[in-house]
């Protein structure tokens, strides 16, 4: 297994004069900041933005992917190596497999350790020629029968292939932070405005879906696009209709109790939005009911998106 040796921690001071997203970019760019420090700051940004997709990925990179099935690991954590067996007379020797598919399977290491642990391993073993990943008990049993031997077996990986994971995580954070900046999502004064949170949600969901393949706690591909803004002192009826349509389209991604709780208010909203002169006071009351129902589904992206859009419609 990969070993871990403690080393000195780097400074975690933040420059309060710079917006949060710019600080995040600086930490991603500076290799002297540990990957754990970078991920903790990424978590801060994700929490303040209210973006669950980013936070889920960050939590895994901070704490590891224990319990995550191999197929669901990010592609950059599936690393090709050299399958070897340890001969008591000749040391580690290559394992030759004629079946290409099986050879591919036993040559692929699924790396579940946290990014910080991987960084520690590489930095604390600078002169190692290889790192070793042991097979699972089930894999070892199959290989032992196939080769008719009790030799220890493992996948040997180059340090560079492990460092590539750490580097990939750093680059993903940097690219995410730059994507946020391009959309004007900065976080001045350690806080994000409501328009920034709306834009940040869209940017983050798209970025992580395209680059990692995860977008938080979503059922299927359901999500709300928060791209409407409320008009001051009035209700944006077009945005209201869009909210209703999206909630109906993505209702299957909501918990059953939330769907039941908001159904009467949603039906009344749909009726009111179809009137030639909708009643703003009635709409606000109904929106508050839908919002309360959705707030009962903490962590659900559709519900969280609805809450944020309702806040915008109500002016905060």
From TrEMBL:
Q: Which residues form the AbiTii domain?
A: 20-202
Q: Which domain of life is it from?
A: Bacteria
InterPro entries hit by this protein: AbiTii
Listed name of the protein: AbiTii domain-containing protein
The organism encoding this protein is: Rhodovarius crocodyli
